[in-house]
Design brief:
mainly alpha, 13 helices, about 300 residues, globular, about 60% helix
């Protein structure tokens, strides 16, 4: 398989009809590492909104079980895309996620913003640091996949196109980003979780690299200083050098899809393992919109 074979195939596909296959290729074959980094940065963007970070701060999950909370976020995304949005596997993951969220009073626009970050974040990361940018068909396929997930979650006013997701994402941040101590606490707990993956001597450097990847509005909302220009250039240059090496390398064969590897579940996991333990005692409700059943789209 040539390096651009999947891209040529994707350009001939329909993002509405083929969104599950295209999303699978993006997340498991074309950009598995970059997609996860984009999701990780999107994870941090949520903390720039005081209303979101205050809720997360009250749960204390990032302070008490930061690694599990981080891993569970990645695994929920994996469960919802592994066999395609709307598959039986993704529907089960959304039902479990919905019963966790049902405990809290979360405004619809906050749900919609978090959903938007899960496609805007990876798309922007891949365009900046991936071995090639996403094409239009790939962008729209990600939007269809996200919209399918959003409707299954019961989110209202979900956009249908990538440009509309991106506009909502940027408008929401301009309106909602503001510093709050809770933002700093939750972000700090996440930085400590990531830094703990490395030897103690490297942890201050890891924190600087993470901060160098964040834009000024987010840094201000989190209460962190902008890193020196030289540091930001070094980090960006290293990531672009990696992208060049990936571009010159072979395509990932169909027999070797990328898998999510997490630290919290060395011996595997079940869906009920994801999220706080109390969620298992809450009832599983039917999906607000089930793509497997006939009826109008959500």
């Amino acid at each position: 398989m040539g390096r651009y074979s999947r891209l040529r195939a994707i350009r001939r596909m329909d993002p509405e009809r083929d969104h599950a296959q295209i999303t699978r290729w993006i997340t498991q074959y074309e950009f598995p590492w970059d997609y996860r980094q984009g999701v990780s940065v999107a994870f941090l963007r949520d903390f720039g909104v005081p209303r979101i970070s205050q809720l997360l701060d009250r749960t204390q999950e990032f302070e008490k079980a930061g690694q599990k909370r981080y891993d569970d976020t990645l695994l929920f995304g994996y469960e919802m895309t592994e066999e395609g949005p709307g598959s039986q596997r993704s529907r089960a993951a959304v039902r479990h996620l919905n019963r966790i969220h049902a405990r809290y009073r979360i405004p619809n626009e906050d749900f919609l913003y978090v959903l938007a970050t899960t496609i805007v974040g990876p798309k922007r990361w891949i365009d900046r640091f991936g071995w090639r940018p996403l094409c239009e068909v790939e962008r729209e396929a990600l939007a269809v996949s996200a919209a399918t997930t959003g409707r299954m979650m019961g989110i209202e006013n979900v956009p249908a196109r990538y440009a509309d997701f991106e506009k909502f994402h940027d408008d929401y941040e301009r309106a909602r980003y503001a510093y709050d101590p809770a933002n700093h606490r939750v972000a700090g707990a996440t930085f400590r979780t990531v830094a703990a993956w490395y030897p103690a001597l490297l942890r201050p450097l890891v924190a600087r690299v993470l901060l160098a990847l964040l834009d000024r509005p987010l840094l201000e909302a989190l209460g962190y200083p902008e890193q020196p220009r030289r540091t930001r250039r070094l980090v960006a240059g290293a990531l672009r050098a990696r992208a060049l090496l990936v571009r010159l390398g072979p395509a990932r064969p169909e027999s070797r899809p990328a898998r999510v590897r997490v630290r919290s579940y060395p011996f595997g996991y079940t869906l009920d393992d994801l999220g706080p333990a109390w969620a298992q005692s809450r009832p599983l409700e039917p999906l607000p919109w089930d793509p497997a059943k006939p009826g109008p789209r959500g």
